[in-house]
Amino acid sequence: MRLSVVGCGYLGAVHAAAMASIGHEVVGIDVDGRKIEALSRGEAPFFEPGLPSILSDGIASGRLAFTTDVAAARGAKVHFIGVGTPQQKDGDAADLTFVNAAIDSLLPHLSPGDVVAGKSTVPVGTAASLALRVERTGARLVWNPEFLREGFAVKDTIDPDRLVVGVGVGDNASAEVLREVYAPAVDKGTPFIVTDLATAELVKVAANAFLATKISFINAMAEIAEVTGADVTQLADAIGHDVRIGRRFLGAGIGFGGGCLPKDIRAFSARAEELGRGESVAFLREVDEINLRRRDRAVQLAVDALGGSVFNKKIAVLGAAFKPHSDDVRDSPALDVAVRLYGLGASVVVTDPEAIDNARRAHPQLTYESSRDETIRDAEAVILVTEWDEYRRQLSPEHASTLTSGRAIVDGRNGLDAAAWRAAGWRYYGMGRP
Ligand code: UDX
Description:
The chain is α/β, with parallel strands linked by helices. It has 18 helices and 14 strands. The protein has 2 domains: 189 residues, Rossmann fold (3-Layer(aba) Sandwich); 240 residues, NAD(P)-binding Rossmann-like Domain (Rossmann fold, 3-Layer(aba) Sandwich), CATH 3.40.50. 44% of the residues lie in helices and 14% in strands. Helix 9 packs parallel to helix 12.
């Protein structure tokens, strides 16, 4: 099928390449000329495992192209909207500028019978109002939220755990078009859930709100563990065996960040308030606050580890990305902890396998070092804030001991073997662990 994808950021670029890889003919469109040039050369503008190979295969096959000219969307049967919906600069709500601009630019190129499929995360009610504009052209609008995780985006797009398509009243025909687009996944038995527009929009924010709540729940338990001497990682293992609860997303530490969870729960709260139902999701404010408190806690542990002051002391910060397998530093708890330690006068050196360039752009005041071992060398304290394997599995306390005589390690992700580090003579500080 001929498809267009408007917006070639994280979501759109992966979607375009993934759709070409399952056999569609796809044009990716973006206003950013540099991004389009890179993508056209088969280069991923961000770190995402598996993306470079499906990009270059798609381009080589002739089924995948990128352009800044939105007129190239003409003739496609389905037009996906994958632009960003960041948090507004002066509030919690989502900024819909890019969604509106994408729809405006697309309207002159739509033909009757086309399907516009929104993938961006939007406040509930957005799709219904966009549908009025789209329908004037004879095209139809559906909402098809995306649940991809950074680092697993290609797999999550080609082989998702569910597909959700929200359609206008009686518009089963558009749902069938989307079923055809996703035929390889549907044929494998992937649940294909057809809803109304509002439900589809809500599914996305509800899923992210639930995940954020799960993380903040365990982090709240970590706070209680800290004043009682309990161990939150054992607690998580024990409650996680209950299949109704499940162990995933019960990783206590410095909390969640990234381009989705933080802004999505804030936008959800803002939208609920507009709808007169702010109290229904009032707990999300608490979820946000618990999450932010964990960054303070990690900073406090570093201060404690260094005897009450970090001033002029070298601290090795392992990690800058908001999570491993990503170079994304948007709302990164790891980088925030580094910035706070720097603010307290510490001599901070940050390392990360993939995210240094993005981190430097966001926080040029910090010192960056590409080598893990040089970062640790002569540090008075080491703080692990992104659980890359290089820091979690492949760094032994014995090896770290050869690099520095500082013997304090703060494990901001509870990823290390506390007993092994202690046995090697280190003072180990976990998050919600004794
Ligand atoms: C998330 C959702 O998972 C995805 O479905 C949605 O489409 C977009 O938002 P992503 O932002 O890529 O995806 O990251 P995710 O893997 O969900 O992690 C989010 C944050 O939570 C990271 O900062 C991670 O370190 C943190 N986290 C995750 C924890 O602190 N503890 C956990 O147990 C799990």
